[in-house]
Amino acid sequence: MLGVPEHDAVHALVPHTLEEPILGAQDGPLAGRSFMVKDLFAIEGRKTGNGNPESYAAAAPAAETAPAIAKLLGAGASLTGITICDEFFYSVLGTNAHYGQPVNPRAGRYVTGGSSCGSAAAVAAQMCDFALGSDTGGSIRVPASFCGLYGLRPSHGRIDLTGVTPMAPSFDTVGLLARDAGLFRTVGRTLLQGSGTEAPVERLILATDIVSECEASVDQLVWDTLETLSPALPEVEHATIAGGTLAAWRAAFATIQGFEVQSTLLPFVEANNVELGPGIKERFEIASRITPEEAEDARGVRRTVESHLKTILQPGTAIVLPTTPTQPPERDIPDGASFVEFRTRTLQTTCLAGLAGLPQISVPVGEAAGCPAGLSFVGWVGGDESLLDFAVGLSDLL
After folding, report:
1. Is 263 a catalytic residue?
2. Is 38 a catalytic site residue?
3. pLDDT > 90: what percent of the chain?
4. Among residues 55, 139, 145, 155, which one is catalytic?
5. Does pTM top 0.90 for this prediction?
6. CA–CA distance, 352 with 246 (Å, rounded to integer)
7. Shortest CA distance to 112 belongs to which of 94, 133, 138, 100?
8. Which position among 91, 115, 116, 145 bears the catalytic label?
9. Which pLDDT does position 10 carry in this prediction?
10. What is d(CA 134, CA 83) in angstroms, rounded to the nearest whole number?
């Protein structure tokens, strides 16, 4: 398992994990493959914990399995485990005060990123072939980058969210993590519903304002990677995407997310006086104070961002940006005051796709300061399949 002791790798799994695998169909494009899922998917006869033991204790066993899981089982893949996530998904760090912190098999001193932390750790440690998580504000893309994996946040609504615990429904998506580009594409195409808008990626725009905000090692990796990939890429245009408003975009995302949490997760937390871990507790307190007026102002910013990005991202065009602006923090960073800057910088990069409901893939491109790092491509609405094909096309050069 890439040099990671087995007992550490198993820390990717939650205590109430599967005793026996749920076997997939004998035939299908994913026959013989194994996968794990984040602790927010309904599995018939089992309870979902959402990263919190009190939530698990209060839950009833699911009557039906989430359609996303059922599709994969029908395509031949077998479900072999349930993975740790950040508590109530409210972090991008990859820690959990109750269940522990999964090990990053690619960089043991550093966090996996979250909130789909266990899913990323399990795939990177070769405990399964691929894994499902959710991505609201970066919860697939960040661990994909930090663990050296392929990650997909789909167009909003392209993968069925039935049977998946909601956090901020206008941002929530089911996401995918894999080590292999070909498998990444096969799983993605299996899960995507409805007709996409397929077109070859023929125009790339480098978000220079986002790159300029990165740590020096990440900035250098972006330029080096673009040079390495140049034989497979169209000419890359350079442009300012946000025009100095990235901080406002991030604030709008955080405000809308927090306001929607008031209707999804906060009622249970308050009604049961749930004991929350550090950082998560403070985030819920902030969310509880967001007013309808603040939320509506943030939605106005969102409408502007969505219109702006969708004007740029016509079929065949993608924006290039680093998946995360920094290397992963070391494992001993607390999810508290010292974590605020990391979270703020990260959400400033990841909020684009969420605000506009756009698909984004993270592609593993090497290391920055000795840690895995990802390069991302944000596409047009419905361009998910084209981005998956694009990832496969780049894989031979990476």
Report:
1. no
2. yes
3. 92
4. 139
5. yes
6. 9
7. 94
8. 115
9. 61
10. 12
